[in-house]
Amino acid sequence: LKMKVKPANFSGPPHFERMKGKCFSNILDEYKYEFCPFSNITQFEQSMRWNPYSGILGVWQEWEIENNTFVAMLMKNGDGCNDRNREVKIYFKCGRKTEILNVTEPSTCWYHMILQTPLVCPTDAMLVYPVMSKEHQLEWDDIETKLFHQEITNKGYKKKLNQLFEKAGFYLSEEKKK
């Protein structure tokens, strides 16, 4: 299997770096899934039917962030499927060991995965602000102050935060996405 794009650089909670270079697999229904954090995710159909699908569902790109929290890993630019590329959003659940618990396909070629791991168990494990550089924290503080004083709108606030997350390496720039 060959990835269409190169995985993005590591970013996110520093303690997730220990998952780099590791892969986790599980067989669910008729498919074997293999998730390699900060690299890619693959699917291998286990059925004996003619022409079973095996391929890349997504390549590591960026984080989904909401309310100062890393909510999910976004794996994009997987194999082609109809008129789009496959994508996976990986959500995390606290548990004793790291394993793939579930994979669903809410819409064609777009998947959700639940990965259980002890890395998310501490209540502050997925907070964004503490893992940012001091410079980026000060910039975030400034954005929050401007919103508080109504110097920017909610839309402007979100735009500035997205730009900050891009600078911090949590989001890919438009150029890198292309």
What does this structure look like?
By secondary structure, the chain is of the alpha+beta class. It has 2 domains: 112 residues, Distorted Sandwich (Cation-dependent Mannose-6-phosphate Receptor, Chain A); 37 residues. It is 19% helix and 38% strand. Strand 9 and strand 10 form a beta hairpin. Keywords: Disulfide bond, Signal. This is MRH domain-containing protein. It holds the Pfam family PRKCSH. InterPro entries: Gtb1-like, Man6P_isomerase_rcpt-bd_dom_sf, MRH_dom, OS9-like_dom.
Class by alpha and beta content: alpha+beta
Integer count of domains: 2
Count the E strands. 10
Strand order of the largest sheet: 1-2-3-4-5-8-10-9
**Radius of gyration from the CA trace?**
18 Å
**What is the terminal separation in angstroms?**
21 Å
What's the architecture of the largest domain, going by CATH? Distorted Sandwich
Could you give a short account of the major beta sheet? 8 strands, mixed
SSE succession: EEEEEEEEEEHHH
At the fold tier of CATH, the topology name of the largest domain is: Cation-dependent Mannose-6-phosphate Receptor, Chain A
CATH superfamily of the largest domain: Mannose-6-phosphate receptor binding domain
Question: What is the CATH class of the largest domain?
Answer: Mainly Beta
**Mean pLDDT, as a whole number?**
93
Strand percentage, roughly?
35-45%
Q: Uncertain spans, ≥5 residues at pLDDT below 50?
A: none
Q: Roughly what percent helix?
A: 10-25%
Q: What is the number of helical segments per DSSP (H or I, 4+ residues)?
A: 3
General form: globular
